[in-house]
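Appendix B, record 7
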Amino acid sequence: MRVLEKITNNGLSKGLKNFMIQNKILGTVAGVTVAFSFGTMIRSLVGDIVLPSIYLLLSKFGINTFTPLPDVNLETFLKEFISWLSVLVVTFMLIDFIFKKYILK
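Structure tokens (predicted):
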């Protein structure tokens, strides 16, 4: 029990805190998480809204690119957008909690 208290009160906890602050680990983790989620949202925007709209526009000019034309799928895009927004909020709340509880102590 004393060894565990010694590690958490002195060495390991302080070293980990300094490492995370100096190397900006939490910011990097948050950025990678949000960027990964943002990539899926952009992929859905392009695949479900932009490209079908372009195909529809091209078919109006008589350019038959693909048959049949894909449908604009707003549902899938909104699902991905809400998913991205929830990842953003949860990541912010988690980073804020970690800073308040462990870093800014």
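Remarks on this record: Residues 25-103 form one domain. The chain has one domain: 25-103.
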